[in-house]
Amino acid sequence: MLTVSTANVNGLRAAAKKGFVEWLAATGADVVCLQETRAEADQLTAAVREPEGWYPVLAPSNAKGRAGVALYTRAEPEAVRIGFGSAEFDESGRYAEIDLPGLVVGSLYLPSGEVGTARQDEKERFMKEFLAYLVDRRERAAADGREVLVCGDWNIAHREADLKNWKANRKEAGFLPEERAWLDEVFAAGYTDVVRALHPDVQGPYSWWSYRGKAFDNDSGWRIDYHMATGGLAARATEARVEKAPSYDQRWSDHAPVTVVFDEG
């Protein structure tokens, strides 16, 4: 079996003080993908920077205190790559990937965007470049005998079932028609939303809840943290779950880990 978890930690230093270290020590995952780490390696404690039993890959942003992705693996990666060949985004802490036997695993933090601002323009540029990369990555991996799994915070809810208040968010970043159509293109490029494939007819399961109001208590959330897998790997997925904290005060992020179990095949 292969178990992979992904989580936007909303600041790795803060999450480490709230329970992330304990979660990492207890998880049965073989690979953990993190996003929005917002930390340089020398700002992290040894328990986070070099946790026992893990090979860490840290990819901070060149803009200090922003973005940042990471991967932790039980097995030593065969190769590590930071970025995806983008002049604009390779140092922005948005993407890193590793090679494991028969598999490429990427950790993605797609820009969140904001309608009518430069942030949305940035998101759209990223989406255009990254879609082309996904196509190329799948083809090159297949030629090398590998499947591809891109985990992370994609910052787009694809369907009405992926967010509680979809009617109120139809003109907001994260649920715009053009963003949802872009995910359709990702699927057309040979990738499968593994959690939705295993849970096709349910609301959610959500993975992000605003800190404002009673969003967490009322399960008024968004499903924006995805495991996107190429066909051979997606077909081997047997279990997918959101590790939602038992209560608001036990959260170590505004996101929850999303964990998928695959048969080895």
List the helices and strands and how they pair.
Blueprint: E1 2-8, H1 12-18, H2 20-26, E2 31-35, H3 46-49, E3 55-59, E4 69-73, E5 79-82, E6 95-100, E7 103-109, H4 118-143, E8 147-153, H5 177-188, E9 191-193, H6 194-198, E10 225-230, H7 231-234, E11 237-242, E12 258-262
Parallel strand pairs: 1-2, 7-8
Antiparallel strand pairs: 1-12, 2-4, 3-4, 5-6, 6-7, 8-10, 9-10, 11-12
Helix pairs in contact: 4-5
Cofactor: Mg(2+)
Family: Belongs to the DNA repair enzymes AP/ExoA family.
Protein name: Exodeoxyribonuclease III
Query: How far apart, in Å, are the first and last alpha carbons?
Result: 8 Å
What is the assigned CATH homologous superfamily? Endonuclease/exonuclease/phosphatase
Strand line-up across the major sheet: 3-4-2-1-12-11
Broad shape: globular
Number of domains: 1
Task: Describe the sheet with the most strands.
Answer: 6 strands, mixed
Radius of gyration of CA atoms, rounded to a whole number: 17 Å
Q: What is CATH's topology name?
A: Deoxyribonuclease I, Chain A
CATH class: Alpha Beta
Contiguous low-pLDDT stretches (5 residues minimum) are none
CATH architecture: 4-Layer Sandwich
What is the number of strand segments?
A: 12
- How confident overall, as mean pLDDT? 96
Work out the helicity level. 10-25%
Q: In DSSP terms, counting alpha (H) and pi (I) runs of 4 or more, how many helices?
A: 7
